[in-house]
């Protein structure tokens, strides 16, 4: 099962960087999301391809026509938080308020219930598992925030096998679609989104796709924008991660959609036999 998803944020929504952290900093940058979204939606339309879009509440309020277009063309809409902050840097109250605002912003524009969430930077860890309870209390039924391995923005190793499962938290239950991993020379490798997708050559991505029974993609409009400005104060390693491979990424995406079959999360959810799914119990 291959799932196609996009995280809808601006090119400057880079985490762990002071000059791109809050709305006051964002106001100093040019906006590029409209043209980038036109390109993505055009490709999906040409290929008759479904996808799920995780949209920031900030984007919905700033560019409501983008949200309306995504919805009018029949794509599934989910929330990617409101102000793109790392969940493990937020208190319960801060997280709750951010989630409430994001859901309301999206629902007010499209008039449909938001049932799915992904944390910025996959920022769920062993130390903020209370996020699951907050999601459930806000009516979220599906989470896509688990990165089942160590990484810079946390990682949630205790989830275990990278496949859809049910998370049981304090008697409450939520469906989880984690990021997928492949084993390469004993190392857990991710290839299906963001900088990883831009880093690997297409032949390697194609090989790893064929080896995987479950793939969760996560692309961003900025991944396909080679003309975006460079944020000057980023460290060299972050510049490499943020800007490498931009020029060829859109052609790789086009090839990926043509070479493999993808579903959106709505169809993926319907295809999973949840009665036999693995249950991951998490103690508060």
What does this structure look like?
This protein has 284 residues and is an alpha/beta fold. It has one domain: TIM Barrel (Alpha-Beta Barrel), CATH 3.20.20.370. 37% of the residues lie in helices and 14% in strands. The strands form four sheets. The protein has a five-stranded mixed beta sheet. Strands 2-3-4 form a three-stranded parallel beta sheet. Strand 5, helix 6 and strand 6 form a beta-alpha-beta unit. The radius of gyration is 18 Å and the shape is globular.
The count of strands amounts to: 12
Tell me the strand percentage band.
Answer: 5-15%
What is the string of SSEs from the N terminus onward?
EEHHEHHEHEHEEEEEHHEHHHE
Main sheet strand line-up: 5-6-8-7-12
Average pLDDT figure: 93
What shape does the CA trace take? globular
CATH topology: TIM Barrel
Residue runs with pLDDT of under 50 for 5 or more positions: none
Q: Please estimate the helix content.
A: 25-40%
What is the gist of this entry?
The protein has 284 residues and is an alpha/beta fold. It has helices spanning 23-26, 33-46, 57-62, 64-72, 92-110, 130-137, 194-199, 202-211, 236-243, 246-259, 265-271, and strands at residues 2-3, 5-8, 52-55, 76-79, 116-117, 142-143, 165-169, 172-176, 182-184, 187-189, 215-216, 279-282.
Task: Give the helices and strands, then pairings.
Layout: E1 2-3, E2 5-8, H1 23-26, H2 33-46, E3 52-55, H3 57-62, H4 64-72, E4 76-79, H5 92-110, E5 116-117, H6 130-137, E6 142-143, E7 165-169, E8 172-176, E9 182-184, E10 187-189, H7 194-199, H8 202-211, E11 215-216, H9 236-243, H10 246-259, H11 265-271, E12 279-282
Parallel strand pairs: 1-11, 2-3, 3-4, 5-6, 6-8, 7-12
Antiparallel strand pairs: 7-8, 9-10
């Amino acid at each position: 099962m291959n799932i196609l998803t996009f995280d809808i944020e601006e090119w400057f929504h880079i985490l762990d960087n002071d000059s791109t952290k809050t709305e006051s900093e964002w106001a100093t940058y040019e906006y590029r999301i409209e043209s980038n979204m036109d390109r993505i939606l055009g490709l999906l339309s040409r290929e008759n391809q479904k996808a799920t879009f995780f949209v920031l509440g900030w984007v919905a309020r700033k560019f409501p026509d983008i949200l309306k277009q995504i919805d009018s063309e029949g794509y599934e809409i989910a929330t990617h938080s409101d102000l793109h902050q790392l969940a493990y840097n937020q208190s319960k109250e801060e997280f709750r308020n951010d989630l409430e605002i994001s859901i309301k912003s999206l629902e007010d524009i499209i008039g449909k219930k938001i049932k799915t969430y992904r944390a910025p930077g996959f920022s769920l860890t062993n130390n903020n598992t209370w996020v699951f309870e907050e999601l459930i209390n806000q009516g979220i039924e599906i989470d896509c925030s688990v990165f089942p391995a160590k990484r810079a923005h946390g990682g949630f190793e205790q989830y275990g096998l990278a496949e859809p499962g049910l998370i049981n938290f304090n008697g409450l239950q939520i469906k989880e679609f984690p990021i997928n991993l492949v084993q390469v020379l004993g190392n857990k490798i991710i290839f299906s989104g963001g900088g990883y997708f831009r880093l690997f050559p297409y032949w390697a991505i194609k090989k790893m796709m064929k080896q995987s029974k479950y793939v969760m993609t996560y692309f961003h409009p900025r991944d396909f924008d080679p003309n975006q400005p460079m944020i000057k104060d980023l460290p060299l390693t972050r510049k490499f991660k943020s800007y490498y491979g931009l020029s060829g990424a859109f052609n790789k995406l086009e090839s990926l959609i043509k070479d493999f079959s993808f579903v959106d999360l709505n169809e993926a959810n319907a295809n999973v036999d949840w009665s036999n799914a693995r249950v991951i119990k998490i103690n508060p």
